[in-house]
From TrEMBL, chain A:
Family annotation (InterPro entries): DNA_pol_a/d/e_bsu, DNA_pol_D_N, DNA_pol_delta/II_ssu
Stated name of the protein: DNA-directed DNA polymerase
PANTHER family: DNA POLYMERASE DELTA SUBUNIT 2
The protein's Enzyme Commission number: 2.7.7.7
Cellular localisation: Nucleus
Pfam families per the UniProt record, alphabetical: DNA_pol_D_N, DNA_pol_E_B
Enzyme class label: transferase
Domain DNA polymerase alpha/delta/epsilon subunit B span(s) in chain numbering: 221-453
GO cellular component: delta DNA polymerase complex
Automatic annotation (TrEMBL), chain B:
Annotated region (Disordered), positions in chain: 147-346, 364-409
Subcellular location as annotated: Nucleus
Biological source species: Apiosordaria backusii
Protein name: DNA polymerase delta subunit 3
Basic residues bias (residue ranges): 335-346
GO terms (BP aspect): DNA strand elongation involved in DNA replication; DNA synthesis involved in UV-damage excision repair; nucleotide-excision repair, DNA gap filling
Signal peptide residues on this chain, from the entry's feature table: none
Acidic residues composition-biased segments: 253-262, 304-319
Record-level GO cellular component terms: delta DNA polymerase complex
Biased composition (Low complexity): 204-219, 380-399
Domain of life: Eukaryota
Record-linked Gene3D superfamilies: DNA polymerase delta, p66 (Cdc27) subunit, wHTH domain (3.90.1030.20)
Main location: nucleus
GO molecular function list: DNA-directed DNA polymerase activity
Length: 498, 409
């Protein structure tokens, strides 16, 4: 409880003293952007999606099988030893065995390409279904590999999150109906975690360690998502300007500025910087004008440049004092399918000055427009971040999704976008499946979430992952701060009261 | 009276404007923290003179009561495994003077409070302050922030964005005069900062002329052009090589026609042309042989020439990449050819892992002329044999219907 009298004369609530306030230098952080999710410039879309599943299975299956082997090697049930079966089709009725494969969820409400083709629907619009699960229990879980498919039944399935595309091993027997009765179930669990500073050379490492040790209030990075600059709504513009002055270090007093604000070395914008356009509305309101204004190609009148201008001005104000990593999100001007490629610098006429130097493509720009998902190394920590589509899509498979638990599950499945390409649009990869987590991140954040949450999960080999759900700023007005020494998380809530 | 008070009373009281600390810092070129104090002093002194004449908004930063209750609720999650961390939550709250007492009561600890803006009337709509912030960002002058970042990098290549910033920074450099208007000791902070800034601008400006964006860009354009130029170059070559080797693909044989119909200044067209002629001749003769089965001996007399075109035919079909066809004519009886041709067959086999694998296998296919005359060949002879046939036809005095058409063409 703070009373008005308590704060009188505090800090800046006094006349200008004329005392010089010392200039503060913003902390710097080492940053490396990894191009794990970069697509080739010339992309082909002729190939089949099946390769993604195949690649994922071949990448994750050995790990799953090893874990399953360790767990079930000695398992004897009813005098029968559980033995490994190579392929799903090799499962024999009545034999206790275990097999690894890809989960496929057969859900009536889930969009299905086969159904679209059979009904002669060729218009591809993103699905508008808000959930895939059906209440009446018509959903079925299948396990498949390149040989075939088998339906999974049994109680253990209810204890785990399962979505299409995750790789699991199941132990049990095939029953008379040809279904596989699951007794136990295993994931790959967390992939091996690289040590801190794995990608930076030793020189930088020692230098940074000695530098950071004396600093007790250590450096931070700010993560924000869903800024949703809008051309029409002014509901949170004040909060946006408060956020800007907070990040700039203009607001608050010298003590806070030196201890907190100047320690924020980097801002990560995790998607949805530009509000969803309402451009479809004018067309639906008066269809007569639509026919009149039908033009070939670009129609300037239907485009509102204000949101991107506002966003550009936000970035260009902040960039002189803070480096920014920008992930595209669902509403941003980037491609729709995963992995989203960086927002083009042409969207930021003012801020692109801080972009990467074309002659040094290896060095990330001060404004680093990255892919979504994006992988980077910040102050030695491996950071994996997405703008939220991967998690949002998985949540549609669940009745009451525990988003943090699903984030953890993604790490344990070793796949950051398991539902791609089934329900999450994705590029048809052929040679590589980048969604497989080859290395365990230290920090994994997902943007555009309804609310903030965080926790640390641990792996069997001592891996520690900090999971952060980054809330939409437009709804919660919250910024997440992550300490780059301890990976501790705090958040700042911005509000107004009039 | 201090200049800043005069400035504030002008804009707030006379012009009825809302002034926040960043706007003040920008217009007077004073550090932001000083601007906050100026706003406070203005608010205090004005209200001392005439209570209620100036209204302020405050920015409070601190920890609220029960700010962790939200996280406490998460612990009721059904999944016992997901125990979420309780994280420190800081609140940044912009509040009007009227609500200050209420809002302060919600706080457990106030780390910082300062005047955010002043106006001549109570701020009902906080969006007004966003407009002020927008005004600040649309202005060219710099806000004298307290935190600088010496590591800031910009790309070397210049776009229009840089010009704008160059234009704006020198404008700001001339501002120290404006700052000295304020009766305050020149602050070291102020001095160091412009120093850093000028360094930056120097860096950018100096690199600007050195950089020459145009060549870099034009090199890109040139590259594009050269690419475009290389493309047509490539295309004739592509059409040329089939012409030399004389493929059997219908599409390409069409191209051959074009070449003949529209003579292009191609040096290498000459040898092609010759072989083409020869081939056509041979083919035509063959055709005629087909047509006139009970032909007179005079027609037969030409047959000794036949071996000449035949090997060419073998050659002509060889390089087809898709369906390799090679003919070995075994018998040439009665003007009708029989033989075998080499083809690539697609074959599906099961490999040792049980996968179906499609392979291409070379094979031989026997044929006879009447059964399978390769259609493109026919097209070629009929449509492209203009000159030879015209000549021949004239010599024979026998009008060929094809020569009639091709003459017109």
């Amino acid at each position: 409880m703070v009373k008005l009298e308590d704060i009188a004369g505090l800090g800046l609530l006094q006349a200008p003293s004329g005392k010089p306030s010392e200039a503060l230098t913003r902390s710097s952080s080492s940053y490396r952007s990894l191009d794990t999710f970069a697509l080739p410039k010339e992309r082909r879309y002729q190939q089949q999606f099946a390769d993604i599943y195949f690649l994922r299975l071949t990448k994750i299956k050995p790990a799953v099988e090893q874990i399953a082997h360790e767990a079930w090697e000695e398992t004897v049930l009813g005098g029968e030893n559980a033995k490994k079966v190579e392929r799903v089709l090799d499962v024999r009725q009545g034999e206790l065995c275990w097999v690894a494969g890809t989960v496929f969820m057969d859900m009536p409400l889930k969009p299905s390409i086969l159904e679209d083709v059979s009904k002669d629907r060729w218009i591809s619009a993103p699905t508008s279904v808000d959930h895939y699960y059906s209440e009446d229990g018509r959903d079925q879980v299948m396990l498949e590999d390149d040989s075939g498919r088998i339906r999974l039944v049994g109680e253990p399935l209810k204890d785990y999150f399962l979505v299409t595309g995750c790789i699991i091993a199941v132990m049990g027997t095939e029953n008379a109906n040809g279904e596989f009765e699951v007794i136990d179930l295993k994931f790959a669990d967390l992939p091996p975690q690289p040590p801190r500073w794995a990608l930076s050379d030793k020189k930088i490492k020692s230098e940074d360690v000695s530098m950071s040790d004396p600093d007790t209030p250590s450096k931070k990075i700010a993560i924000v998502s869903g800024l949703e600059f809008s051309g029409t709504s002014t509901a949170y513009t004040t909060e946006l300007s408060l956020l800007l002055s907070y990040l700039l270090g203009d607001s608050l007093d010298p003590a806070t500025q030196s201890q907190e604000q100047s320690k924020i070395s980097r801002l990560i914008i995790a998607g949805n910087s530009i509000a969803e356009s309402a451009s479809s509305d004018p067309h639906s309101n008066n269809p007569s004008t639509k026919t009149h204004t039908k033009k070939y190609g670009y129609d300037a009148s239907s485009y509102n440049p204000l949101p991107s201008q506002l966003f550009d001005s936000f970035l260009s104000t902040l960039l002189p004092t803070m480096s920014i990593t920008l992930l595209p999100g669902a509403n941003d001007p980037a491609n729709v399918s995963y992995p989203q490629q960086p927002i083009h610098s042409a969207m930021f006429p003012q801020s692109r000055l801080y972009g990467p130097t074309p002659t040094h493509p290896d060095e990330p720009g001060w404004l680093d427009a990255t892919t979504n998902p994006s992988e980077s190394e910040i102050d030695g920590w491996r950071v994996l971040g997405t703008s939220g589509q991967n998690l949002d899509d998985i949540c549609k498979y669940m009745d009451s999704p525990d988003r943090l638990g699903l984030m953890e599950a993604m790490c344990r499945w070793r796949c950051s976008a398991p539902t791609a390409p089934d329900t999450l649009w994705s590029y048809p990869f052929q040679d590589d499946e980048p969604f497989v987590m080859k290395e365990c991140p230290h920090l994994y954040f997902v943007g555009s979430q309804p609310e903030f949450n965080t926790k640390v999960i641990e792996g069997p080999e001592g891996q520690m992952v900090r999971l952060v759900l980054v809330p939409k700023f437009s709804e919660t007005k919250e910024v997440v701060l992550v300490d780059t020494e301890t990976l501790e998380v705090s958040k700042v809530r911005i509000g107004t009261r009039s | 009276m201090d200049t800043y008070l005069k400035h504030l009373s002008e804009s707030v009281l006379a012009e009825d404007k809302v002034v926040d600390f960043r706007l003040l810092s920008q217009s007077l070129q004073v550090p932001v923290n000083t601007a906050k104090q100026m706003l406070y002093e203005f608010h205090r002194s004005q209200n001392a003179k005439r209570p209620g004449s100036v209204h302020a908004t405050y920015l409070i930063y601190g920890v609220k009561h029960n700010s962790n209750s939200q996280n406490g609720a998460d612990e009721e999650m059904p999944d016992a495994g997901s125990v979420t961390d309780v994280v420190p939550v800081f609140d940044l709250c912009l509040v009007t003077e009227e609500k200050l007492r209420d809002v302060l009561a919600e706080f457990e600890e106030v780390k910082t409070i300062h005047v955010y803006s002043v106006a001549s009337r109570p701020t009902k709509d906080m969006a007004l302050l966003a407009d002020v912030a927008h005004e600040v960002s649309s202005n060219d002058k710099k806000v004298l922030s307290n935190i600088v970042n010496p590591n800031v990098r910009t790309r070397e290549r210049k776009g229009p964005g840089l010009k704008a910033s160059i234009a704006s920074t020198p404008a700001f450099k001339q501002q120290p005069k404006a700052a000295s208007k304020v009766k305050e000791d020149p602050k070291p902070a102020e001095e160091t900062k412009p120093a850093i800034k000028t360094e930056k601008t120097e860096k950018t400006t100096s690199s600007a002329p050195a950089k020459k964006p145009a060549p870099a860009k034009s090199s890109g354009i040139m590259a594009a052009f050269s690419k475009a130029a290389s493309l047509p170059k490539k295309e004739p070559k592509k059409s040329a090589s089939p012409a030399v080797t004389e493929t059997n693909t219908p599409a390409l044989s069409d191209e051959d026609d074009d070449e003949e119909e529209m003579p292009q200044p191609k040096p290498r067209a000459k040898p092609d042309f010759k072989t083409l002629k020869q081939r056509e001749e041979g083919l035509r003769r063959m055709m005629e042989g087909d047509d006139e089965e009970e032909a007179p001996a005079s027609e037969r007399a030409e047959s000794p020439e036949e071996p000449e075109p035949e090997p060419m035919e073998v050659e002509e079909e060889a390089p087809d990449p898709v369906k390799e066809e090679k003919e070995v004519v075994e018998t040439t009886s009665n003007g009708r050819r029989r033989g075998k041709r080499r083809i690539m067959r697609k074959k599906q086999i099961m490999d040792e892992q049980g996968y179906l694998v499609t392979i291409q296998e070379p094979g031989w296919e026997s044929f006879s002329e009447d059964e399978a005359p390769p259609p493109p060949k026919v097209v070629k002879t009929t449509s492209s044999a203009s000159s030879t046939q015209a000549k021949k036809g004239a010599a024979k005095g026998q009008g060929n219907i094809m020569s009639f058409f091709s003459k017109k063409a």
